[in-house]
Amino acid sequence: MTYVPQPANFDDVPVPAAPDIGDGHHIGAMAERLVQLIRSLGSVAVAFSGGVDSAVVARASVEAIGDRAVAVTAVSPSLATVERQQAAALAKSMGIRHVEIATNEFENADYRANAGNRCFFCKETLYRLSGEQQTELGVAFFVNGTNVDDLGDHRPGLQAAKAHQVRSPLVEIGCRKSDVRHLARHWHMAVADKPASPCLSSRVAYGIEVTAERVRRIERAEAFVRQWVPDGNLRVRCESEEAARIEVDPSRIADLQREDRQSAVFAELRRLGFRSVSIDPAGFRSGNLNQSLTMVPLNTPE
Residue 283, SS3? Predict the structure, then answer.
């Protein structure tokens, strides 16, 4: 099924071997393990972006503890409007209580500096604000959608999770990204094949200041390009000298490069404020900007 868009350091966490979940029996067994783990926590707040990882954790939480689960979405300029709307609609469809928390990471100079540790300050803000509201939320634990594959990626936010004692149920049961999608299909979730959609700030090249104006421009640019790329991966990267580089799945590059479309896209992105525009001939690559991290000091707080 093709998804179509709608209007820490874990060294001390034992990661069990993930079972082969190629058939329904094993998928069901993993789903039950996840439900049992969350049930043992009693009550949880799920860091909920509306992506498949956090959605699976939220769905398991509803199964496990019902109204003792709450989905918490961080709202700031880095969250695209369409992603915010989709998260709210998804939470409603699952029957989980949904709370939006306005976060202020853009007021933090360390976040705006956009070094390789930017995500630490974002997640630290969310977890700290959520912790301050823990009594009001009525939960004993905060959990996220981190899966085993994330542990091998550059994710400074994991350090923030550890600092705030956030649990990662998918890691604790040995669940990888492919397993997450199997679980979403097991529960007949519409987001089972939704492409990853990191925050808008992740589109800004490291070392270039993250500002509300830049991420708003990126959001508008992606919304414009999306009319010709209705599904699959899409990123408008903001690079030095206000250059926009468009990444789409390799199979969609030729469609976007049609003369009439390319001319319209380039004209609109320049109107939005980008000084130059290009379509990446290599296509979309997840975490593409991380290649520059060897040139950017990290200085992530311990």
Answer: coil
